[in-house]
Amino acid sequence: MKRQLPVEFIFQLFSLFVAIILIHGIYVSIVRPNATAVLEEQSIQVNANPNYVPERSLFVVIKDLEQEACFILMLWAISLMGYKSLTSLRERKILEMDLIPVNQGTSILPEDTREYSRPIQALPENQQSYLLPRALLTALHRFRSTRNIQDVSNSVRAICESESERLDSELSMIRYIAWAIPSIGFLGTVRGIGQALGQAHKAVQGDIAGVTQSLGVAFNSTFVALLISIVVMFLMHYLQLTQERMVLDTEEYCDNRLIQHLQS
Questions:
Q1: What is the C-alpha to C-alpha distance for residues 225 and 69, in angstroms, rounded to an integer?
Q2: How many CB atoms lie within 10 A of CB 163?
Q3: Of these four, 30, 76, 137, 238, which has the most CB atoms within 10 Å of its CB?
């Protein structure tokens, strides 16, 4: 586990760096030029026809800094969840392996634990750090030392519970991102309303273009942030569900493949 922490930390920094470059590049080359062109076209149409009603454009809705920051955080969160989902899938593949080759009706005695530990210890080092191999080895070692089946069951349950707590704590960064996205949207709302209030004197004189544009910034930033937050929260809860199922399946694997065959 100690070797995985620096790798995950480096991946977090690298994914954030890539998200910033990718999203900012899209905004500079596509979003903002198109938004400027749409606003200019709408301004010409309004001046030519007072009854003209501008259509909402996606480029105009997402053109501001707050929306760009929200998309960066969304892409970063998705990359972090993808990394954890890949790890969860690798651990789930271990559940398909027959690490305890025991036939139906066969009993495992304390003297047999060394023999049943060898297939698990023969796994690659990175796979031995997964939950299932750790739980099985702990159960076999506990059974060899205590010869108590209840102690074995308690040790497996304790490992699974600690793993569930660890996985839940590792989602704290993603939870922070899911909280930060709507907060950034509200900052855009405050900025837009502040700009609109600063141009209130122009609205009194009959020029409401600046006020409406500032209010558009306020509402668009909130709309985009809340929409992105819904997507991120859905993916995060699905990831959490996948991890919880993996832990429960590991505990069931230990019960069915090992603990039921123990004979003290």
A1: 9
A2: 21
A3: 76
